[in-house]
């Protein structure tokens, strides 16, 4: 089976721009419904696709947060090059960490952090999520169960470097949180089983933003942008963006 790889997307609308950042092991599809909603409300959005994502798990594990960070910076610059000089950033999971870190280095109007993994449940949970991604990808390729099991046996020895790089990146972002001054909306699903949901409280209490809010979604999990309360999330993100001090 030939898989159609995901792509970056640019949804043009009004003069206010939003950089949308997807999760680890995810793709731009995880933030596209939000982008469409914001476009209808007059916001332009751009979502880069991180290196290795939307490809085979083996290719994914040949990349690291350093590579993905370069894609985040390039996404920000894409919006600037297109004439958008007021940019908010909205990220899911590791994309939320990128959003927070970006706000400490470049000018952003505001940050929406969705399910930021400041505290993962365990290394095993992260490993299992990578292995599950590999199994699902290989299944979509049309491979047999026997073939998948054989490849997964080999694959199980590979994610350690990726896990270490992700954990190191999380540690660096935690050290930067006191430098986050931009208006920030912290979003967290109460049913999140991939991270310790108390990450949201840690984040909210650690950032220095004067304008900040924490919103819990009682019936949503980690991929909150596609979960049961996605329409409520869309409205909340839009309402937050409307509170920012846009100058145009």
| Low-confidence segments | none
CATH topology: Rossmann fold
CATH hierarchy class name: Alpha Beta
Number of domains: 1
3D shape = globular
Give the helix tally: 9
The CATH homologous superfamily is termed Alpha/Beta hydrolase fold, catalytic domain
Mean pLDDT across every amino acid position = 93
The largest sheet is: 7 strands, mixed
Strand coverage percent: 5-15%
Spell the H/E element sequence. Answer: EEHEHHEHEHHHEHEH
The strand line-up of the biggest sheet is 1-3-2-4-5-6-7
Number of strands: 7
Separation of the first and last Cα atoms: 48 Å
Your description of this structure?
- The protein has helices spanning 29-40, 57-60, 65-81, 94-103, 123-140, 145-155, 160-176, 199-206, 230-242; strands at 9-11, 16-21, 43-47, 87-92, 111-114, 184-189, 212-217.
- The model has no long low-confidence stretch (mean pLDDT 93).
- Strand 4, helix 4 and strand 5 (111-114) form a beta-alpha-beta unit.
- It starts with 8 loop residues before the first strand and ends in a 6-residue tail after the last helix.
- The protein is an alpha/beta fold and 248 residues long.
- The protein has a single domain (9-242), classed as Alpha/Beta hydrolase fold, catalytic domain (Rossmann fold), CATH 3.40.50.1820.
- The chain is globular, with a radius of gyration of 18 Å.
